[in-house]
Amino acid sequence: MSAPSSGAAFLGIVRRDLRIAMRRRSEPLFTLGFFVVVTSLFPLGLGPEPELLRRIAPGVLWVAALLASMLALGRLFGADYEDGTLEQLALAPAPLVLTAGAKIVAHWLVSGLPLVLVSPLLALQYGLPGDVIAHLMLSLLIGTPVLSLIGAIAAALTIGVRGAGVLVALLALPLYVPALVFGAGAVDARLAGLSAAPNLALLGACLALAVLFAPLATAAAIRIALE
Amino acid sequence: MLDATDLECLRGTRRLFAGLSFQVAPGECLQVQGSNGSGKTSLLRILCGLARPEHGAVRWNGEPIDALGESFRAELAFCGHANALKEDLTPVENLLAAASLYGLPAAANAGARAALDALGVLQLEALPVRALSQGQKRRVALARLALCRHRLWLLDEPLAALDAHAAETLARLVDAHLAQNGICVLTSHQPVALRAGTRSLELS
Questions:
Q1: Prediction pTM value
Q2: At B112, is the secondary structure helix, strand, or coil?
Q3: Count of CB contacts below 8 A, A vs B?
Q4: pLDDT reading at A87 higher than 90
Q5: Closest Cα partner for A111 from A68, A160, A75?
Q6: Same domain, B45 and B137
Q7: Which of B79, B90, B101 to probe the A interface (max A CBs under 10 A)?
Q8: Are B74 and A8 an interchain contact pair (Cβ–Cβ within 8 Å)?
Q9: CA–CA separation, B49 vs B66, rounded Å?
Q10: What residue numbers bound the domain in which B1 lies?
Q11: What confidence tens digit (pLDDT) does each residue in A185-221 have?
Q12: With an 8 Å Cβ cutoff, are B86 and A83 in contact?
């Protein structure tokens, strides 16, 4: 038998999850659709007041992104747990930390990256100027991986729990606060004509911390769930 | 050599088994028998390292499996109650995804088809697994064994949902595995007709 390579296992898991998402397009589209609908409801509900819309835009777009990325968390490990795949992943030679990391990467590609890509279109509804939109995209690009990483911990902690969807929200939302504050803060600062750099740097720090610790915590939670 | 010493397993406050010791040498098959709820699945989960025994240890070639970690898991194939198949993928894609966990080359396509052929489900290779019957899914799950060639097989109720013909195919697969000095531990309510014969372990 050939020596198991962790890199190949990592890519294998990412590829498998992306292929499943492509076969079952409805789930990624739900996330995206939710994001689009929620952000479009605010201008409709609040009325066409350009000043007000511009002011609330960073917060609304960020909160909507946060809620949308949470929608798919319940299935992140739930489906694998139910069909026995999670046991196989835990028994594979590759360390579970790496396996969990691969699942998170796939989750972000399916449910985080699309939000980043459509955000400029949605920002237009709020009349944001071009350079602010660029900063919104940048903050989401750094921030949505944080959401996937932290969300994965919550998802792993609720494996096999009944009503996991609500519990995931209760666990994950408070932990999303730093990402929300720095992410929306960066866009806000830019809107006020200030530099977005400090907020983006702090958001980057959140990402660095999450990359380091979230896979470890997720792997530990998976192990407990399987025992 | 798989070596279990003095295993004890608690489920809640109930003791499923205690003082359980056995060895399985290369080329041997151990069939674990017992009534429903007697701890067969729990025993297999302890043997593969998913669960920890309350007391006792499992050793592989003399080393505790916890200490071996990765190198033990690379030699282990576990086939649980659940088939671990993705409903949206085809049987070949499922096998290749499983094989990639063990670092088998992506060009194992021919190998995956040969494994499906060995289990008699090659004609289903283009269908998503969700379109398959229970027995066919079980065969695809067992095809993993034929593809990955692990030393140690732990099979939990491998005959569940299989027809007589498939049960015979599985028995030949295990025979071939044992002939290559493989080790197999399986749980089953029906006897598995192996040429080499099986040792059995009764849990009560």
A1: 0.91
A2: helix
A3: 96
A4: yes
A5: A68
A6: no
A7: B101
A8: no
A9: 7
A10: 1-75+151-204
A11: 999 999 999 999 999 999 999 999 999 999 999 999 9
A12: yes
